[in-house]
Design a protein that fits this description.
75% helix, globular, mainly alpha
Amino acid sequence: MGWELELMKWGQGWWTAPVLDQVIPWVTHLGSTVALILFIFMSWILTREKKVLWSLLLVGAIQSAVVYGLKFLVQRPRPLAVEEALSRLSGNHVEVFDPSFPSAHTAHAFMMATLLAFWFPRYRVAFFLIAAFIGWTRIYLGMHYPTDVLAGGLIGYGITRLYLHRTQFLEHG
């Protein structure tokens, strides 16, 4: 954790900007559980296939079980800067209750990026860059260590790719 805190402190010296302080809290929500649920339901509405809904709910549930299982198994505390950063950005005292490792926002973002890249391979680089940016917002906000974000990205990508490989449900759906 020591090298990660040093990296985060170093980063705050060159990537912090008032405009980012206004934009990043909104961007980071693109990886939230609410965004994932909206993504799943929008995918279902656009395809009009129940198997898409149930399959995406299943892969989302598997991913969430892995992420939150690891969070409460590892019990890694959030970076010390979390409460300070949240107070600075929101103007209020905000408490975060779940442990830090791994980043659920990043896992959700990479799940969505992996699915979108599967459906629209021509734009896969853009989807993964957006997911990586969402992961970076978690570090910018002081919510996660870099390894939390890396693990979240690997979990989101890995579980989704494994699921796609094992089920092939979306290839012809």
